[in-house]
Amino acid sequence: MYKFQASDGNVYGPVSAEQLKQWIAEGRCDGASKIQAEGSEEWRTLAEFPEFADSIRRPVTSTRPMPSRSSGIPPKTSGLAIASLILGILGIFCGGITAIVGLVLGIVAIVTINKSDGQLRGSGLAIAGTVVSAIVLLILPAMLLPALAKAKMRAQTINCLNNVKQLNLALLTYANAHNGKYPPEETWCDAVQTYVSSDKVFKCVADTQNSRCDYALNAKLGGFATGKVRSPQTTVSVFETTGGWNMTGDAELLPHPSRHGKSFVVGFADGHVEVLTESRLQDLRWDP
After folding, report:
1. Does residue 112 form part of some domain?
2. Please, which residues have CB within 8 angstroms of residue 266's CB and are 6 or more apart in sequence?
């Protein structure tokens, strides 16, 4: 039996003479390779051992790869297995995109390692990469859904706020053209229709009902002079409602529950618009 010193300085063995001859045939070692015979502390070249002389002079070419497990040379770790685990972990921070690739690479790595006959290792890494990637792909959507729903609601609230701004402006524009008075409460939608960019302004995108208009006019302002409003900064002009053309009224018409979580979009007589929480509704002024 012999010990073999590889070119990288690592020592393998003990291995038999037949195994060394096989390595010579495969080109893994040659006459200059250092070996140590069993029972000896001296390292000598293969060429110094008569029993290997014929093999060094006439190496037999072998096309059959020897498995690293039996040869004593450590198998390589699968790069696919390492990549699978890394991509699976990265999927947590990039919306699961890399986890898709990590899952595929993990499965490929497991198959490749199993077919390598011991020349590749890293099955544990490949399994970990596959599991982590799969978990990320399963859990991440559930984690993102609340955030997506919140973003959608915010976008709908902004759209509703812009609608109320346009309706508020249309009311004031109408008043400027009609002796400074708001339109009649019975026909206010018809009256301001020509002062808005589109009929879509009358519709809140968060409304699930097929109503023609989702906003109402403060009934106390119908036909009222804009200049006589005592506190235009706090007096409601137009506000959200459950829907209906030419709707007028007061706080009782506010939608319950709110279409925007716990917020309500309200326009004021001075032209500004606010998104109010339910606790602030009691501070609204309806009597001009």
Report:
1. yes
2. 164, 236, 238, 239, 240, 273, 274, 275, 276, 284
